[in-house]
Design goal:
- By secondary structure, this protein is mainly beta.
- Helix content is about 5%, strand content about 30%.
- The chain starts with about 20 loop residues before the first helix and ends with a helix.
- The strands form 3 sheets. A 5-stranded mixed sheet has the order 2-10-9-5-6, with no helix packed on it. Strands 1-4-7 form a 3-stranded antiparallel sheet, with no helix packed on it. Strands 3-8 form a two-stranded antiparallel sheet.
């Protein structure tokens, strides 16, 4: 057996994971997959919806947009994550954002070297101008992987809503973990606090 993927950290929620099996399955007539589990005091553990497929050579996807849903009115910088679901490393990508369907603001990323199934965190150089006290819709897009045509257009954009406010309230959050006779020491409680 050859190890293709391992998870060492505790994860409190379900996650989607892609694993490149090419080094293990290329030119093989028969391939077997197995899953090993080692754990202690765990609430549950599961694997579901396994899919094996070939990927296109050039593909880029927008995975996340990171901007607070409530911001002070003015110029606000947004960040995010793009990923490479394709079969070759991505060296260059163009990203953009548009506010309320307006003209996109483009930015070119180069010298990236994002491996297949790898990710890259980006920050837009030009902040978004959110000056009115309204709710804005921001759409982030990615295109032109390695200067070519993206094979899968359905994963190229993501949008989020942002409310521009005249003032930001100050918030304090208190979290308390407690035990009961029913649960006593509760590993799931600690895991939930970690996730929060």
């Amino acid at each position: 057996w050859a190890q293709a993927y391992t998870v060492d950290a505790t994860q409190g929620t379900t996650t989607h994971t892609s694993v490149d099996l090419t080094p293990f399955v290329a030119n093989q007539s028969t391939v077997y997959l197995k899953f090993n589990y080692v754990g202690d005091h765990d609430f549950f553990w599961a694997i579901d919806d396994i899919r094996i497929y070939s990927v296109p050579m050039l593909d880029v996807a927008v995975d996340t947009i990171t901007i607070n849903p409530y911001v002070l009115a003015g110029n606000n910088t947004s960040t995010g994550t793009i990923s490479n679901p394709g079969g070759v490393a991505l060296n260059s990508v163009d990203i953009s954002y548009a506010i309320d369907g307006g003209s996109p603001v483009y930015q070119s990323l180069s010298n990236l070297n994002i491996p297949p199934f790898g990710t890259y965190n980006f920050t837009f150089q030009q902040p978004a101008s959110l000056t009115d006290f309204v709710k804005y819709q921001i759409e982030v897009g990615a295109l032109g992987p390695n200067g070519g045509t993206d094979a899968v257009a359905s994963n190229n954009s993501l949008s989020t809503s942002v409310n521009a406010l005249s003032a930001m309230p100050s918030k304090n959050v208190v979290l308390e973990e407690f035990t009961t006779a029913q649960c006593q020491y509760c590993p799931m409680g600690a895991t939930t606090v970690d996730v929060i």
